[in-house]
Amino acid sequence: MNRVKDLRIKHDELQEDLGKIVGVSGRAIGNYETGKRKMSPEIIKKIANHYNVTTDYLLGIDESNVFPIADSPISVPVLGKISAGLPLLATENIEGYEFAPSSYIKKGFDYFYLRVNGDSMNIKFADGDIVLVQKQDELENDEIGVILVDGQDATVKKYRFDEDGFVRLYPMSTNPEHVVQIYNPKNISIKIVGKVVSYQGKI
Q1: Helix, strand, coil distribution of the chain in percent, nearest 5
Q2: Strands 111-115, 73-79: pairing kind
Q3: Which domains, from first to last, does the chain contain?
Q4: Catalytic residue from among 124, 157, 158, 195
Q5: Interval 12-57: pLDDT, tens
Q6: Can 38 be counted among the known catalytic residues?
Q7: What is the pTM of this model?
Q8: Closest by Cα among 198, 83, 172, 160 to 119
Q9: Residue 107 annotated as catalytic
């Protein structure tokens, strides 16, 4: 027994999304979920780390350990925007507080919600939704993150750093006006603020 599908759906991810995160195809994720294919120890560890659960829980060995810590609400600041030159949690940025499940919160990281503006990511998030962000200065390819470009307000996009040395920020939108943004970090400032780990509808 494994719980990959339940966790994936809980985090609103497609099989292809999870596959890109752990380095396999979406079809492979489907096979893991149905039991047609066994997960390697490396894949088990990657998926467990991604969802912040134990490997025993992921495999259905530990029935009692739904999350590695007891789930409880934690107050997290909601930012209306992130601007260059201001501290991340400056009063000017904070528009209120909302709760996040403690199961999404890892020790050693800071978290905040950011309110999404516009429709450039409307396949994943609607205008006005809030996304839970784990503050960090690095992203893996194809993770969704919060990025400051050239000192402008932060943007939420799917991130990729390619072998050619260019950063590509991908919209996930039904609006064809939004296109891939390509930057050379040697010529323009690119600052990763954090990784999107969850989201809520309009608050």
Answers
A1: 20, 30, 50
A2: parallel
A3: 4-58 (1.10.260.40), 73-200 (2.10.109.10)
A4: 157
A5: 889 999 999 889 999 999 988 888 888 888 888 888 888 777 777 7
A6: no
A7: 0.64
A8: 172
A9: no
